[in-house]
Amino acid sequence: MIEMHDVWKTYPDGSPALKGINVKVDRTEFLYVVGPSGAGKSTFMKLIYREERPTKGSIFVNGFNLEKLKQRKIPFVRRNIGVIFQDYRLLPKLTVYENVAFAMEVIEAPKKFIMKRVQEVLDLVKLSDKGGSLPTQLSGGEQQRVAIARAIVNNPAVIIADEPTGNLDPDTSWEIMKLLEEINFRGATIIMATHNKEIVNTMRKRVLAIEQGEIARDEVRGEYGYEG
């Protein structure tokens, strides 16, 4: 599903974010990306959905070589990648239903299909009764559920989750993780950056540790491996 070959990322000020990354992520795999703050985790994630471009190396996502991709093809590739952020990034003036539907409207999905599909994902994330609410009327956990619904509404092959439980209390964090596990079980590949030691050590998925821009560990059923 995802391959990186000798990927380097150096920022304009000369600081290296990633150095010689080589990694493969299989279809339907669940991968935790861990490491100290500033290690390069966010850059690693952004390269996958082409928010950033590598200084050197090649990246393949779902069969597409991102570096050789024509500009007009980028939106098509991004449709197959759902992104979940720590700060939710919901549109404040739109309702829950409208926030999720917006992701489908952008790709010009038929209106009848939008109504059916949005209701399906709101049922999945247990927010079927919140469709008419604004983000400000929801708890943090509910807002993150909306963000997840928006990320999965177009049935993406890959879900990128950047610290999805970072702003949530422990109980809500576990609810979000159970939801992500269900989405993974349904066939999506999930790559999740996290600092949550308890979640990583309890759920025991594949762990990719990045330190100072390099892969320090890649373990099939890994542990967090850092203090805190």
Automatic annotation (TrEMBL):
Matching PANTHER family: CELL DIVISION ATP-BINDING PROTEIN FTSE, IMPORT ATP-BINDING PROTEIN
CC per GO annotation: plasma membrane
UniProt cross-references to Pfam families, sorted A to Z: ABC_tran
Domain ABC transporter: 2-227
Function: Part of the ABC transporter FtsEX involved in cellular division.
GO biological process: cell division
Protein name: Cell division ATP-binding protein FtsE
Keywords carried by this UniProt record: ATP-binding, Cell cycle, Cell division, Cell membrane, Membrane, Nucleotide-binding, Transport
Family classification: Belongs to the ABC transporter superfamily.
Domain of life: Bacteria
Species this chain originates from: Paenibacillus xerothermodurans
InterPro entries for the chain: AAA+_ATPase, ABC_transporter-like_ATP-bd, ABC_transporter-like_CS, ABC_transpr_LolD-like, Cell_div_FtsE, P-loop_NTPase
